[in-house]
Design a protein that fits this description.
The chain is mostly helical and 128 residues long. 80% of the residues lie in helices and 0% in strands. Helix 5 packs across helix 6 (89-105). The model has no long low-confidence stretch (mean pLDDT 91).
Length: 128
């Protein structure tokens, strides 16, 4: 994830990939779009999951299962600790919030970068 990459740079890479895909033979292009339809993630869904759900569900949506599990476990531990009166457990929650803030504000860009990487993988698979 490259949060500081300018959006224009990502758009240039996406356009270049589109041009490359258009040069594929019909059969490969058809296979590319068929696989792409199955594996692309909607940036709006990712953003909504990021805004409305706790515990890293947006990571699950992108298929980042270890990150989802780690974040969910830390969140549950932090909340449980707070309910049991361990005020230091609030530090876990605070660190999770600080970690998630960039994901929250750059969610559209993160999903587009994910889709670009998936598109490149599919393109390379189809070319073989």
């Amino acid at each position: 994830m490259r949060l500081l990459e300018p959006l224009e740079e990502l758009e240039k890479k996406e356009e270049y990939l589109r041009q490359q895909v258009n040069t594929l033979p019909d059969e490969q292009r058809k296979a590319y779009f068929k696989e792409l339809k199955l594996r692309l993630k909607d940036p709006d869904t990712y953003a909504a999951l990021n805004w409305f759900f706790l515990g890293g569900v947006h990571h699950f949506y992108l298929g980042k299962y270890p990150l989802f599990i780690a974040e969910l476990v830390l969140f549950v531990l932090g909340v449980t600790g707070l309910f049991l009166g361990h005020m230091s457990a609030g530090l876990i929650i605070l660190l999770l919030v600080l970690y998630e803030l960039p994901h929250l504000f750059f969610s559209q860009k993160i999903a587009r970068q994910h889709n670009y990487e998936v598109s490149c993988e599919i393109y390379n698979e189809v070319r073989r």
